[in-house]
Design brief:
single chain; alpha+beta; Rossmann fold; OB fold (Dihydrolipoamide Acetyltransferase, E2P); 6-stranded mixed beta sheet; 5-stranded antiparallel beta sheet; 9 helices; 19 strands; binds adenosine-5'-triphosphate; ABC_transporter-like_ATP-bd
């Protein structure tokens, strides 16, 4: 269990992490997701003991490992955590087996035990045949597996990942997601995973914390976030594709009638339909793009700074320059106020 209470990290007058509290159950896979600069890496660095918090506490189980109020943090090596970064940082002069062996050697494990553990984790990651190669003799994906093997070899009870897949190509990234989850389950460790990619977050997480400007916008399961977004930011950040947010002021009159004028209405892409001509409840957009998604069609329209996306079974063929009329259901799926707060 990881317990984070009122955590703050400031750089001068700026709070990169601004009063975050979260409890992560034992064995959970927590993903910290949010746009660039929202404070994800700073959070992870504090969990790893690489930064001392400016305020608040972090506890692993019953043990406080960082206390910003008193200005101390337990050393990274003494925290029972393993960390994998986006750059693999393997030791170039050591073989694959040597890289994985090194932390065990440092921990004082006897040679026969070490050999058995190295063989075990290399097999778990599917890289046993590469044991005697050097980092410059293996691919990027294989290097990332070695970095993960090296992290889990000493059996840390908490695994920390900072965008570990972002240097891999799209196909490998999808494969490695599954692989990482398998490793997570096999070790039983509590994992915290940082990414700016909401698809990665939603597919891997047991729990997600959506961060924005150093604060948690919402903490919950992936299903909670998609079904019941707490803020306008979450609504438009998660989901494939994310939900549409349309200011009530631009809605067709028959749809805006009973809604507060300053609010924004949320419509799910799958609740919209499209038409080549204006009809009741439709809004006109310029056609932007269409793409097939799992046997359906995803259509996007643009009007000034507003983008709208519908996912439909069948659609007329549109070309750039055409008007597409997106038909909105009678009631929005949610309403958000001017500050992004959920109204209904
Ligand atoms: N050492 C530092 N000194 C000053 N400001 C910093 C420092 N480290 C981070 N920041 C600032 O804190 C904010 C959060 O940074 P952080 O690296 O945690 O963001 P992030 O969400 O991980 O972003 P990205 O996805 O781009 O890596 C940013 O505005 C960043 O510029």
């Amino acid at each position: 269990m990881i317990r984070i209470e009122n955590l703050v990290k400031s750089f001068g007058a700026f709070n990169a992490v601004d009063d975050i509290s979260l409890s992560v159950p034992e064995g959970a896979f927590l993903v910290l997701v949010g746009p660039s600069g929202c404070g994800k890496s700073t959070m992870l660095r504090m969990l790893a003991g690489l930064e001392t918090p400016s305020g608040g506490t972090i506890a692993f189980g019953d043990r406080i490992v960082s206390d910003g109020n008193r200005g101390w943090t337990i050393d990274p090596a003494q925290r029972d955590t393993g960390l994998v970064f986006q750059s693999y940082a393997l030791w170039p002069h050591m073989s694959v087996a040597g890289n994985v062996d090194w932390p065990l050697k440092i921990a004082g494990m006897a040679r026969p035990e070490r050999q058995a553990r190295v063989a075990e984790v290399l097999t778990m990651l599917g890289i046993a045949p590469l044991a005697t190669r050097y980092p410059n003799e293996i691919s990027g994906g294989q290097q990332q597996r070695v970095a993960i093997a090296r992290m889990i070899a000493p059996r840390p009870s908490i695994l920390l990942f900072d965008e570990p897949l972002s240097n891999l190509d799209a196909k490998l990234r999808v494969e490695m997601r599954t692989e990482l989850l398998r490793v997570h389950r096999a070790t039983g460790a509590t994992s915290v995973y940082v990414t700016h990619d909401q698809v990665e977050a939603m597919t891997m997480a047991s729990h997600v914390a959506v961060l924005n400007q150093g604060r948690v916008e919402q903490f919950g399961t992936p299903e909670d976030l998609v079904r019941n977004p707490a803020t306008a930011f979450v609504a438009t950040f998660v989901g494939t594709p994310p939900a549409n947010l349309v200011p009530v002021s631009v809605l067709p009159r028959e749809r805006a009638a009973s809604l507060p004028a300053q609010a924004s209405a949320m419509y799910r892409p799958e609740d919209l339909s499209v038409s080549a001509i204006p009809i009741e409840g439709s809004l006109a957009f310029d056609f932007a793009e269409a793409s097939p998604v799992a046997g359906r069609t995803m259509l996007t329209g643009i009007s000034d700074s507003l983008r709208i996306t519908a996912v439909v079974d069948a659609a007329p063929r549109f070309a750039v320059g055409d008007k597409v009329h997106f038909v909105l259901p009678e009631a929005p799926a949610a309403l958000f106020g001017a500050n992004g707060e959920r109204l209904s």
